[in-house]
Amino acid sequence: MPRRHLRRYQAPEWWPISTKEAVWAVRPSPGPHSIETSLPLAILVRDVLRYAKTLREARYVIGKGLIRVDGEVRRNYKYPVGLMDVVEIIPTGEVYRMVPHPTKFLWPIPISQEEAKYKLCRIENKTVVKGGQIQLNLHDGRNIQLPYDEGSKYSTLDTVLIDLTENKIVDAVKLEVGALGLIVRGNNVGYYGKITEIIQTYRKRRSSVTIRTDDGKDIRTIIDYLFAVGKDKPLITITQPKEVIQTQ
To answer: 180-230 domain in CATH 2.60.40.10?
Structure first.
């Protein structure tokens, strides 16, 4: 695959673009999310949110600084937008969060301005850095350093709720039986429910986990595909209203 260009037939199948309309697609820039798990900002603006009809228009909107991602203005039309990212359309005040979708893999849902201040991030790795502090490496490329005593409370694959304005942790959810889990990859992407069973294996990320949805359906996946989102209820909005889903 070319380093700078991406043919449409090579793009992820879930991207909302036609392989017959043109040859080339926007290739995401290197960033916090991989090609397989993100949408270039231009495609999000043009093909999903439909604030532009052409790539030229999308580049103009983005270049004018009218779009924020996680509270920061992004002028790069190739910027990769991924899981749990908060996208704000500055002129209209509309705010969206990117969440897993059962058929579209990743899709924006509207949220309030108040909720836009917060974001759920999964801890992908923990390291001890200079000074004896613990650094949490989060799924969106964000790093947070904490005193050793505080950082040791968190485990890999746990989820933390981040205040985007101050880049600090305000809440956390352990990935354990009884918590609410959201499937973010695999064949069952988009489903969420209470975790009822975790079967540990030698490789932690390949451990088997079962969630029970609100309608009583048991779904099994691997723990690497699961994202803890709350205890008794999700800490943030993670699904669209049912009437919206039914019309899509």
So the answer is: no
Q: Are 125 and 135 in contact, with CB atoms under 8 Å apart?
A: no
Residue found by looking up tokens 């069952």 in the block: 188
Sign of torsion over alpha carbons 166, 142, 174, 130 = negative
**CA 172 vs CA 8, 34, 37, 77, 201: distances in Å:** 39, 25, 23, 32, 24
Tokens of residue 168, six digits: 């600090």
pLDDT digits (tens, 9 = 90+) for 103-161: 889 999 999 999 999 999 999 999 999 888 999 999 999 999 999 999 999 999 999 99
Give me the amino acid identity at 97.
R
The full set of domain ranges for the chain reads: 6-113, 117-173, 180-230
- The number of angstroms, rounded, from the C-alpha of 58 to the middle of its chain's C-alpha atoms is 22
Q: Which pTM was predicted?
A: 0.90
CATH class of 117-173: mainly beta
pLDDT 10s digits, 168-215: 999 999 999 999 999 999 999 999 999 999 998 888 899 999 999 988
When the candidates are 3.10.290.10, 3.40.50.300, 3.90.960.10, 3.20.20.120, the CATH number that belongs to 6-113 is 3.10.290.10
Cβ distance 119 to 138 under 8 Å? no
- Coil/strand/helix, residue 47: helix
